[in-house]
Amino acid sequence: MLRYAIPLLLIATPALSDEPPHTGVAGSRSMPELSDILLAACAAGGLWFVRSRMRARLRRTPKD
């Protein structure tokens, strides 16, 4: 397994790419990226799902 890992790590090095991954110059952002919007939607969906399951669980509990 290790003999496969070392060549794969060497292939994945960013030093061999044509353009550097980070130039050091900050750009301006006029709006959120698509990934930001998708993360917020995923978090909201997860919260909704968990809360609905918790409500259903509390409804099923027998009252003593």
Task: Report what the structure shows.
This protein has 64 residues and is mainly alpha-helical. The protein is 58% helix and 0% strand. It has helices at 2-11, 34-60. It starts with a helix and ends with a helix.
Task: Write a concise synopsis of the structure shown.
With 64 residues, the chain is an all-alpha fold.
Annotate the secondary structure layout.
Elements: H1 2-11, H2 34-60
Mean pLDDT score: 81
Radius of gyration (CA) equals 23 Å
Distance from N terminus to C terminus (CA atoms, Å) equals 57 Å
Helix count from the secondary structure assignment = 2
Strand content: under 5%
- By secondary-structure content and strand pairing, the structural class works out as mainly alpha
- State the low-pLDDT regions, or none: none
Overall body shape: flat
Helix-strand pattern: HH
Give the fraction of residues assigned to helices: 55-70%
Overall strand count: 0
Largest sheet: none
Key traits:
mainly alpha; 64 residues
